[in-house]
Amino acid sequence: VSMRFVVSVGSLDEATNERGLSHFVEHMAFAGTRNYPKGELGRFFQKLGMDYGGDVTAFTYHDRTVYHLELPRNDVGLVDQSLEVFRDYADGILFEPSNVEVERQVILRERQVRDSPQSKLSELSLNLAMEGTLVPERSPIGTNEVILTADSDRLKAFYRKWYRPELMTLVVVGDVDITKLEEQIAAMFSSLESADGEAPQREIGSPVRRESVRTELLPMNGVDRFHVEALRCWDEGSYEDSWKTRERDYVRSFATELLNERVRQQVDGINNEFAYYRRYLGLPYVSFAVSVGGDEWYHAADWSDYLLRQGFKYGFQNEEIEKVRASWLRYNENQVKRYSALGPQEIIDGLVDSIETGKVYLGIKDLSAFHNKILKKINRRSVKSAFRDCWDFDAMTYLVAGNIEDGVDPNLVAASLHFVRLMDLPHYVPVVVEKFAVEKRETQGSVVDEEVIEGMENAFSIQFENNTRLTWMNTTLAPGAVEVLVRVGGGMLAYVGENPTTHELALNAMFRSGFGEHSMEELFSALRAKVDNFGFSASEFDAFEFACTGDEAGVELFLQVVAGYLAEPRISEEAFEITQNKYRQSRVLELDGVNE
User: Fold this and answer.
1) Which residues pair with 553 in a beta bridge?
2) What is the Cα–Cα distance from 561 to 95, expressed in whole angstroms?
3) Would you place residue 53 in the very low, low, confident or very high pLDDT band (cuts 50, 70, 90)?
4) Under DSSP, is residue 39 helix (H, G, I), strand (E, B) or coil?
5) In angstroms, what CA-CA distances link 1 with 6, 85, 122?
6) What is the 3-state secondary structure (H, E, C) of 305-372?
7) How many secondary structure helices (H) and strands (E) does the chain include?
8) pLDDT tens figures, 241-250
9) Fewer CB near the terminus (10 Å): N or C of the chain?
10) Distance (Å, rounded) from C-alpha 388 to C-alpha 311?
11) What is the CB neighbour count within 10 angstroms for residue 474?
12) Hey, is 58 helix, strand or coil?
């Protein structure tokens, strides 16, 4: 059983002298309540086999505060106790001064962790796009001044003002007796009293309407590569959820995915998403970001702008549309196949988002059927129109972050863009990627051992003469899907040298190099077309991992790729240099980045 207690209050509802109080209140919910004094709540959850941060957690956003519970079983008594915890969150949080001081230090530490260059970059990106709204002034973490001065009385006042029944939603997904659950909820929450007066209406404002390109620079000392991002947010008037609006958003996402495909063909990298379209607080929002090396970083903005203008002026070709259409149709088909096996945790957060954004909730079957109708009628004209709605290149903001020299004028980017735009703009010429095929090996391995795994239904294991072991299980948990995990070698623990990063650096450089005569772009393009998702990782300590989810045909291709990497590995100088630079960048950008 998955449970969410949602309160429709976030940082956007705070006054100037309250910035950070909604997040502070969320912390206090775990520091002691009416029925669960400090320490008791943790012990209660531990008895149930739950952990803070995994099964028990909470988040404060711009527009909501969400408390999570993942119950290990649908026991009536357990559900009842969980409802009691949520009821305590509703009107029973204790704001004892000593606990306030403890949580103050926790929040200050959390704020310090968020003060990494990568966090600053993400926040600046959102703030630039949302300039003109209240978002740039209302980070959920709050301001130091408010965090340092907030006392028990201020927190209680904010709590009483916003934690009111009309702003609360209880969401439960799982194999529960609905009649019994309704009785439990009524017994637990019917005595909850309304607050005095009405809650203030939220006003977030409108994004600034731009008539020309704007550029911003964010210096980051020690970063070898540059983050170049084109972004835009705009106001289309009040948002209404309708079939028409849903179709418009879906086609915009499709058009943005076409841009992604063009970038994937031209950029050396493993990144699957460079651009995206979404709505944030009801406002349409687009972003297109690339990572580049070299001193002439501003040319990355020229190149990004070049691709945007090509899509804007000429649209996309039928072969590009058909490729993405087929991929999205396959995704929808697989979603429907797996619908019956979804766990409550995979459903509930979409339901919460639907409630908080005022959007009608569509189950996966209905949503996939609707999307399929749109996909079947998408054409060059509709895609071009949707792309122009989003990527108005004259109204974009360009953000560049990296090791930028002191005194560099942000207008350098704008001047370079202006010069490039004076040149002729040719049609896009697709990059031709040869169809990928790996010859099947002539000899098959001999099986030396075969066994049924005890205690697990339909689970088997066989061992080949080269000591490779294959274990598989037939299950109804993911209809139509095959999940594969290949674990190879001794992982990070097997390295005996002085620099433990060597293992991870080498493996990722190998992935980027491809194998045999096949480039990484060729391999990854073939996999994206055939499987739902895949990943290669050196992050586990005891093995290197190759993972994949797809149908049987896609999994066969994936295993051919894995076998190719194992049989014909190589590391090119170019791939090694790119990987090394990315690791340097990761270490600088993240406080918990690469250690060596």
Assistant:
1) none
2) 57
3) low
4) coil
5) 16, 15, 34
6) HHHHHHHHHHCCCHHHHHHHHHHHHHHHHHHHHHHHHCCCHHHHHHHHHHHHHCCCCCCHHHHHHHHH
7) 19, 15
8) 999 999 999 9
9) C
10) 8
11) 8
12) strand
Instruction: Return the amino acid letter for 74.
Output: N
* C-alpha span between 394 and 351 (Å, rounded): 37
- Do strands 56-60 and 168-173 pair parallel, antiparallel, or not at all (unpaired)? unpaired
Residue 210 exposed, middle or buried by CB count within 10 Å (0-12, 13-18, 19+): middle
Residue 49 to residue 193: CA distance in whole angstroms = 33
Cβ atoms 513, 520 nearer than 8 A: yes
Tokens (6 digits) for 553: 């045909």
Q: Is the pLDDT of residue 596 over 50?
A: no
Which is nearest to 310 in space by CA: 476, 447, 427, 173? 427
> What is the C-alpha R_g of the chain?
27
Residues forming a β-bridge with 400: 217, 228
Helix, strand, coil percent content, the chain, rounded in steps of 5: 45, 15, 35
State the Cα–Cα distance between residues 97 and 288, nearest whole angstrom: 46
For 378-442, give the secondary structure using H, E and C. Answer: CCHHHHHHHHHHHCCHHHCEEEEEECCCCCCCCHHHHHHHHHHCCCCCCCCCCCCCCCCCCCCCC
pTM for the whole thing? Answer: 0.85
